[in-house]
Amino acid sequence: LITRWFMPGYDEVFVKFYVMFQEGFKNQRSDGAGMHFLVVCGNNINDSRSCWGKPAIVPNGADYFYAGLDPEEVNLPTLQPLSFYTYWPGMTCCYGNVQFQPSPKVALVTGQWQEVVFHIKLNTPGQSDGLQEVWLNGVKKLSQQNMRWRTTTDLRLNEVRFDNYMPGGPQTQYLWVDDITVWRP
Question: Which domain holds residue 7?
């Protein structure tokens, strides 16, 4: 777990990093899901951990949001394309909603460095003008527009967390993250 807060936070950030998964990396958990990799959290400015410990809880627009980036949650022995795993007030049901890459999908690969850029822009309270998007090796692969992340400006982008959460994996596995840069336009 690597986490970094930048309180009170911002309305828009870019997160750029390089990642390499070991040769033969298997995206398999004992519960049948894939790993949780990266999240950019929206914590309330009065609680730097309001995004933590919220599985199956739909945000209300003032408490938190979770902009996650994971390999597609498919229990397969190979890495899959990146997908969004997101908690926001307009989501359906309870666990994070997943948005998959459109075709042609580009899967993550093992044994080589890949550049990832994750961009999140918060909405103006009362409007659905937020977004999240991701580039892999310079090519935009995912974009979700018209998002309503929050109902108050007390909720901001203020934490980057590499969870690398994969309990019950089939073997000890490694991934490397390098040259992490967070900036705002």
Answer: 2-183
